[in-house]
Amino acid sequence: MNEATGIKEIIKPENLAYKKSNVLTDDIMHYCPGCGHSTTHRILAEIIEEEGLQKDAIGVSPVGCSVFLYNYIDIDWQEAAHGRAPAVATAIRRLLPDKFVFTYQGDGDLAAIGTAETIHACNRGENILIIFINNGIYGMTGGQMAPTTIPGMKSSTSPFGRDVKLMGNPLKITDIVATLPGTYYVTRQSVHTPANVKKAKKAIRKAVNYQKLNKGTCLIEIVSNCPSGWRMTPVESNKWLEENMLPFYPLGDLKAPEVQTVKQIKSNKAND
Amino acid sequence: MEKELRLMKGNEAVAEGAIRAGADGYFGYPITPQSEIIEYLMESKPWETTGMVVLQAESELASINMVYGGAGCGKKVMTTSSSPGISLMQEGITYIAGAELPCLIVNVVRGGPGLGTIQPSQSDYSQAVKGGGHGDYHLIVLAPASVQEMFDFVSLGFDLAFKYRNPVMILSDGAIGQMMEKVWLSPYRERSKTVPEWATTGKPDSRKRNIITSLELDPNRQEIFNQKLVKKYNLIRETEVRFEEFQCDDAEYLYVAYGTSARVCQKAVELARNEGIRAGLLRPVTLFPFPVERINELAGKVRLILSVEMSAGQMVEDVMLSVAGKVPVYHYGRMGGMIPAPDEVVENLKERIIGG
Questions:
Q1: CATH class, range A29-271
Q2: How far away is chain B from the Cα of A216, in angstroms, using its nearest Cα?
Q3: pLDDT confidence of A2, banded at 50, 70, 90?
């Protein structure tokens, strides 16, 4: 028995502990090895599949590394101009109030060029989910400084490290939107370990259910890595994330509704 | 159902026209001289009657991107603004053109550049008819010359937008937006229940996913898309030219003017004829597509053409291209919010005649 046949015999549906979501397409993702985008895409696709949302989901993709997100998740998509996804999603959800509408945006898209659209969609309490990938860098354009680049962090436009006196401070936009009355659930997660992937997925599931109840805007920040932009191996980048990004962007809920299950909320609503 | 007659402002006619055209959504940001449009809509509360969504956005940038999102769902959506706001919208407009989405944009033009004035002007002509944002594209541009046309062109604009999957602009100005005239209101059209096959409304099992985008990294495929747009614009040029003629049959001298300037020139034609000068007027109703052929035909019959605009001379370039050197073409314009008077337009024609 040669090696190839050996593998074929092992890879059988009954032996698989892990399978690709049916909502993911067969397109090969263009992301660099170790990038958090692909993991986040996967859990998002899994939630869409598990919650039976494929026919109801409309995603808004950003400008940035995840610009081709619409090639990977098999739902209807709109590709927004840089930073404008929350405005685009606002109209979609208001015109199609029974659909599941979300944006997927990077830090440059959401916290620099799209700051106004982000803040105002959240403040109006649009019933959309915003998934915010924060890797502290402009990945697609080649590793320039982002609004979330942490002090001292090197990038191609802060080659000696971010000097906050010269370049300004990183913007903790998730903390800001958590203070707005329109947001219902604001949390910061990561996907750099299996345990964190599980937590992040749980957060997405919560947000999906809050949207069904029209509770207001949900924003999930995923603190992520950029091995290529950070000039590190995937393993190094995850270590660097843990040691440098997480102390500055601590994980956890910034705004969460009182702990009660969606079932309870639904029954409360029925009693109103 | 009988038509209703009402006295209203041009801006109010746009708002009423939107509700009656069966619009699904309006997204806008206040700016003078067109804020009555969103005020009228908020006062009318169409979400309680037709179900139309009305939202005041945080900026023109947000408004036009809301229009993008709504149009991507196959809905009849629109925004309105005035010159500085329309400049801010150019990013969204080019994305809408690039994604081939139908929508309606109304520009109630004021004088510029910059913050300029709040008085009427026609200085956004080139921006409107040549594209406005980056990339090769065109809007279909309608130029109303009355409050009635402000009302009628909303419905017409939506129809053209959906016929060609192309953004349509109503290029008005502060005079037509603010003045009051009687308007025959046509009956309410029901909001459309049909979903275009390209719209993003959630993917049923029966079809592939729909993607609204203007992105194409492969230059070969991008060029094929550009060629497709060119073909569409040529079809629009062949099919949708609209204009109006006033005393052109025996005219020796031709005015070309649109919107407010056309109203001035219509009076100027009368005044000139009282003095024995056989003047006529061609009023383009569509600025894109431009009435190239008809102007060229008329150029063969008249001695000279005077293009009258409230600008430094923008449409005159298209008049010259249409005339193709057959007869002299001149420009007369007022700027900065000034509207020419009929007698000064006649005087200018006389100077050209003597000069010629």
A1: alpha beta
A2: 16
A3: low
